[in-house]
Amino acid sequence: MAADSQDPGAPDDPYLAFWRERHLCTLTTPRPDGSPHVVPVGVTYDPENRLARVITLKTSTKVGNILATGPAGARVAVCQVDGGRWATLEGRARVVTEPDRVADAERRYAQRYGRTPTPNPARVVIEIELTRAMGRG
């Protein structure tokens, strides 16, 4: 994995391989007062579409933080760490409720994390339009 910045739409092979491994991640969203809200999440990375996805409940604080920023969405970051290896993806997050996009995100989650999420009608997807990728292997 190359050090520091990469194109999130064209990652090098080690960076992409690291994102395909099973790792718990963090998502950082801005609270209404501007302070960071950091929570553990599962993340899938789709460089072809320059997207990262997080499945969650529509009543979660992270969803509320994103919605509070308005229709343009929130600037967020997702990160994973394994010893000295780390990778961060940054971009603008929006909350998506369309059933086909939620199902796609659930399928991607099952591929990365090895388990199918329990069906939940309150599930939404946080889609992050990626602008930056960083990491060190």
The CATH class assignment is: Mainly Beta
CATH architecture: Roll
- In terms of structural class, how would the helical and strand content be classed? alpha+beta
CATH level-four homologous superfamily name? Electron Transport, Fmn-binding Protein, Chain A
Put simply, the count of helices is 3
Amount of helix: 10-25%
Description:
- There is one protein chain.
- With 137 residues, the protein is an alpha+beta fold.
- The protein has a single domain (4-136), classed as Pnp Oxidase, Chain A (Roll), CATH 2.30.110.
- The chain has helices at residues 13-20, 61-68, 99-113; strands at 4-6, 25-30, 36-41, 44-46, 51-57, 74-82, 85-96, 123-136.
- Strands 1, 2, 3, 4, 5, 6, 7 and 8 form an eight-stranded antiparallel β-sheet that branches.
- The longest helix is centred in the C-terminal third of the chain and has 15 residues, at 99-113.
- The protein starts with a strand and ends with a strand.
Provide a compact summary of the structure.
The protein is α+β, with helices and mostly antiparallel strands and 137 residues long.
